[in-house]
Automatic annotation (TrEMBL):
Molecular functions (GO terms): efflux transmembrane transporter activity
Organism encoding this protein: mine drainage metagenome
Domain named CusB-like beta-barrel: residues: 189-266
Gene Ontology CC: one annotated term: efflux pump complex
Protein name per UniProt: Multidrug resistance protein MdtA
Pfam families: Beta-barrel_RND_2, RND-MFP_C
UniProt cross-references to InterPro entries, sorted A to Z: Beta-barrel_RND_2 (IPR058792), MdtA-like_C (IPR058627), RND_pump_MFP (IPR006143)
Record-annotated Multidrug resistance protein MdtA-like C-terminal permuted SH3 domain positions: 278-334
Amino acid sequence: MNKAILILTLPVVLMACGKEAAQPAEAERPASTIVVGAEAADRGNVYSGEVRARYETVLGFRIGGKIVERLVDTGAVVRKGQVLARLDAADTGLQESAANAQYRLAEEELKRYLELRDKGFVSESALDAKETALKAAAAQAGLARNQAAYTSLLSDRDGVVSAALAEVGQVVSAGQPVVRVAQQGEREVTFSVPESRFSSFRVGMPAEIELNATDSNVQSTVTGHVREISPAADPASRTYPVRVSFDAPNAKVALGMTARVRLKESAKNNAQKNSGYLIPLTAIFQQGDKAAVWIVASDRSVSLRPVEVAAFRDDGALIASGIAAGERIVSAGVHKLSAGEKIRIIENGKPL
């Protein structure tokens, strides 16, 4: 009897054991991570900019009209006084002809009155009126002549066309930008700084300029200094334009070349204010009133480590102590982890 029960229950026990053995190990949780980089005092003072000419002029017609000819394209080398574009001159030509006709008429009238005055037929006051009319007609003729000349847009300097801002057939108003001309010679790097860092800039501050140049004749890193800081913010971006001049100008530096500018002195002056490592706000794990981060070990296990937060900023949390450059931390999903848990590392949206 007992032997029969044992034989009947044995398959059930084996089946249960098989189910337990077939259960897979718990999958590792994917977690976004970052590697702690350079100190925020250094990173916060590197700005991306563009190489521009120190002296640039945005040229436009002094009168409105329809563009019938544009004689230059972007990149064209131009000379002072060279014609860059023309407007339809039909109306101004007619106005000039009418003004010249009025001038000739006033001139003839004055001659006739001079003859009549000599014969005693007109008074001196009548002659004075004709002289005044001639002067007015001469002024109108000069104005019409100038208006006709304004239909040609001339370059105000030797340089290169850095932008063509209007096309043939376009109707433009007086002063509307048509061509931008950059003077050959001195170059600068222009960039913008946010309101939060504007107060740390001053004219003359030394800078290191890193150029993305492929020409072997252009140094990849050169020195410069802050030449100009705009006192007014751009109304759209709410940032302040800054211009940095090269200490040793190089004609090989091309207009439009991208550059990275590092303001060393600014970083030094703000070392205490910005000292630490900048990490995403989502990397902070709050334990009551204390902050911590998840440190990822070489075996992908995580451990919680307290950190000292120097400041919470718009661009992240500034960590004064508790982490070091080169350490990997979890940057998102920090409240889903537990100590000792192994994770699947995700960086820049891709698993490692």
